[in-house]
Write a structure and sequence with these properties.
Nucleotidyltransferase, domain 5, 8 helices, 14% strand, two-stranded parallel ribbon, alpha/beta
């Protein structure tokens, strides 16, 4: 309780709430969170036919999820020259996952280990950075960006704020997995919009 109180003190002061009323936000702090689902996807093209391959690693064993992720990333980046992409990934997703890796006593995957790397050696791409166009003070959520670009919102069922409740109270991990997959698809669609290409159709999305 003392550590949680210390971690959230600035939020308490800003919102005038005691620490115990902020427990529902624990999931955004890597020190107090638990990873239960990671969804990933990549574009694939054979003889001019494109598809988007989508997979999810989910379950109650956080360490097992990370071990599976490490194996998947190692194989993927060994076979391809690619970038790890997320919306606000540089500020949240990538450092959050890296911290949870360390907390679980695991070695970081090469693509997530930034120690000693020069900026141009980091294989990370952030769609929010792309949308800023150099305006470093600008923030746009993925649901607002998808709305502006005419892309179906990934938040049409639940949002990140609902995940803890759906997991601990409703015990509905498949619903959370579906939410994560929608998020990944929306980022793929945003990248296509940035490039002036047609959006993915449902038949082009292949769940592995």
């Amino acid at each position: 309780m003392d550590l949680w109180n210390s971690k959230t003190r600035w939020v308490q002061e800003r919102e005038g709430k005691p620490a115990e009323e902020l427990y529902d936000r624990a999931g955004i702090y890597a020190e107090f969170a638990k990873v239960i689902c990671i969804s990933l996807g990549y574009f694939h093209e054979v003889e001019g036919e494109r598809s988007f391959r989508l997979t999810s690693l989910s379950g109650h064993d956080e360490k097992g999820i990370f071990q599976s992720l490490t194996a998947l990333l190692k194989k993927f980046f060994r076979e391809r020259d690619a970038l790890l992409c997320a919306h606000n990934g540089k500020e949240f997703d990538f450092p959050f996952l890296a911290r949870r890796y360390i907390i679980n006593g695991l070695k970081l995957p090469e693509v997530m280990d930034l120690a000693g790397k020069k900026p141009w050696e980091v294989q990370h791409l952030d769609t929010m950075d792309l949308w800023k166009f150099g305006d470093y003070k600008h923030y746009t959520s993925i649901d607002l960006l998808t709305y502006c670009l005419g892309i179906p919102s990934p938040k049409d069922d639940i949002t990140g704020a609902d995940v803890a409740r759906v997991y601990y109270e409703e015990e509905d991990l498949p619903r959370i997995t579906e939410y994560c997959e929608k998020d990944v698809i929306s980022i793929a669609q945003v990248m296509l919009r940035f490039k002036g290409l047609e959006l993915l159709s449902e038949k082009e999305i292949i769940r592995l």
